[in-house]
Amino acid sequence: xxxxxxxxxxxxxxxxxxxxxxxxxxxxxxxxxxxxxxxxxxxxxxxxxxxxxxxxxxxxxxxxxxxxxxxxxxxxxxxxxxxxxxxxxxxxxxxxxxxxxxxxxxxxxxxxxxxxxxxxxxxxxxxxxxxxxxxxxxxxxxxxxxxxxxxxxxxxxxxxxxxxxxxxxxxxxxxxxxxxxxxxxxxxxxxxxxxxxxxxxxxxxxxxxxxxxxxxxxxxxxxxxxxxxxxxxxxxxxxxxxxxxxxxxxxxxx
Length: 254
Description:
Blueprint: H1 2-12, H2 22-30, H3 46-49, H4 52-57, H5 63-72, H6 78-95, H7 100-111, H8 118-129, H9 136-140, H10 148-167, H11 172-184, H12 190-204, H13 207-215, H14 220-237, H15 240-249
């Protein structure tokens, strides 16, 4: 039947409803080969929500360039663009073995040299300065996640909280689940902040633990093949040869 045939059912069932990213849809519908970049001032979280593959698949020296280029296709606000690019660079750094907090410090220093990054850096510093207790009060202090820098801040905070739990003696599995809960528990754009946090949590911990966590979310009948496929993709992405191939094949819009 496909998604078109199922659309009336999804519309009628409130638990499946979600608002499409209007900024992305409008920007894509108006873009052309000669003018691929968006002409708007949106700083919605649609940029950072989709940027993880750039950090995973593009060689480190080009991650920022590619993340900025892909963000500009739908969002024109510098805060949205740089929120996405710094998150992609953090994902790249952590995937290659750097500690998250060290990578954050390095990127903050780098981005001080770039104009129009004040909001991004303030949001990151806010996440670093809060007590790592995972409380709703702490998360709310960072915003609601509708705009890119707030989504970045909440996702980063949730990952730092998860790492803090491991230091405190929690099992890695419980730390991951609590990190996701932290990112998802607020009344704002919680699906987006949790999705972005999940980008990083999937890199911070071992494949075996992620495998266990993923299985806990799906029924055996539905989830087994999906989890196995996700893990296959994860292992493929981790192959340095894959990084080189994707980076070589990417051509940024003019």
